[in-house]
Predict the structure.
Amino acid sequence: MTSPSHLSLVMQVRTHAFRTAHENIDSTLKAAEVVLTQFDVSRQMEAKINRGPQGDLTGFLAAVDQLQANVEFFSLNRSYKSSDGALNHARGLLQKGMTKIEDEFKALLVQHSKPVDPARVHEALPAALRASTATSPVAADGKRLTPPQSPGSEPTKAGLPLQLPVLMAPRIVPQLHEMAQRMIGAAFHQQCLKAYRDVRSSTLEQSLRKLGVEKLSKDDVQKLQWETLEGKIGNWIQYMRAAVSHLFPYEIGIMQKNCHLSLCF
């Protein structure tokens, strides 16, 4: 006859076996659910990618992030049946998403990149340099540049910090930063660099031209009278100083926030 203690031991062993089997089944089902969910990611994100980032940049970037994670998952788990097909589909959508981000990145840059007002650059010059000029400098359009003054302000007064106007709306910078992060993370580093360089270097050139900094050939210089050339050189020196001390550092700062690069021009 079986003793009560033996029956109790048998029941404990069976209970443990049942519990272990249940836990194994549960973990297997959860693992299967994760895999099945990954197979469905591309289908779920496809509509968002096709719509593009217009109107919902945050949602679009979230979709791109999910596709990036999906590509990484199937790259590490190539043994699953049909994983190659899912990987290729996700890669194709991610490529399309990166192209749309690049287009939006360029569009935002173009929309919010405007040449600086020459008078504000003159205002940014040190007081001693402004005072050393007998007359106000002349911009490319022939107008004298008179620094704008706000009511009650004295721009030439010592100790007053003079700043250039904001060259890009602050609210745009975080958006550009988020898009640049995705492009760089998906190996679109060069596309990000080229888009930023093309737009912002063109804007900087326009700012310098509005100031009167001209590109002259050797023949152009030889045709100018010395008095005229001397006046132009004086203007160029002033505004290149302003560009080096104000415009260039601003561009470098914005570029580093967006593209995480130390050189863009």
Q: What stands out?
A: The two ends are 93 Å apart (CA to CA). The first helix runs from residue 4 to 51. Confidence is low (pLDDT under 50) at residues 28-33, 131-142, 144-162.
